[in-house]
Amino acid sequence: MQFTSTFYILFGCIGVAVHGMAVPGLDARGTLLSRREAELDARGTLKSRREAEIDARDTLRSRREAELKARNTLKSRREAELDARGTLKSRREAELDARGTLKSRREAELDARGTLRSRRDTEIDTRDTLRSRREAELQNLD
């Protein structure tokens, strides 16, 4: 019995020693594995941070593009307003030009009437002159 108990003690110590050595080896592997997992996780975090940065850049890019598009839209709206104002201005200028043309036509008519009036006055004046000459001749005959 003593042999058996010594045997168990001896092999028990060896088993405990082997088991003790094996457990730290497993722990060491597990630690290495967890370190690697931590690295991979950190890389994944870095990757996700990078993806987040890229996503943020894309978001900023799309925001900037949206701003530029909005500015272009505002610019085109402003250009359209200015174009419309120009059109309104040209319409107004056309109206004023037409009024000016009408005014110049009216002035031409008035001028023509004045000319007609002055011609008529001249005719009347000529008739008066002829009348007075005739009267003078008649008086001379008397």
Keywords:
transmembrane helix; 1 helix; 142 residues; mainly alpha; transmembrane; membrane; rod-shaped
Description of the molecule:
This protein has one helix and no strands. The chain is mainly α and 142 residues long. The N and C termini lie far apart (200 Å). It has a domain at 42-112. The longest helix has 140 residues, at 2-141. It is rod-shaped and about 200 Å long.
Shape: rod-shaped
* Low confidence ranges: 16-24
Helix content: over 70%
SSE string: H
- SS class: mainly alpha
Average pLDDT figure? 73
**Oligomerization category of the chains in this entry:** single chain
Compute the number of helices: 1
Region (Disordered): 70-128
Transmembrane segments: 6-26
Keywords: Membrane, Transmembrane, Transmembrane helix
Short account of what is shown:
By secondary structure, this protein is mainly α. Helix content is 99%, strand content 0%.
Chain-wise SSE layout:
Elements: H1 2-141
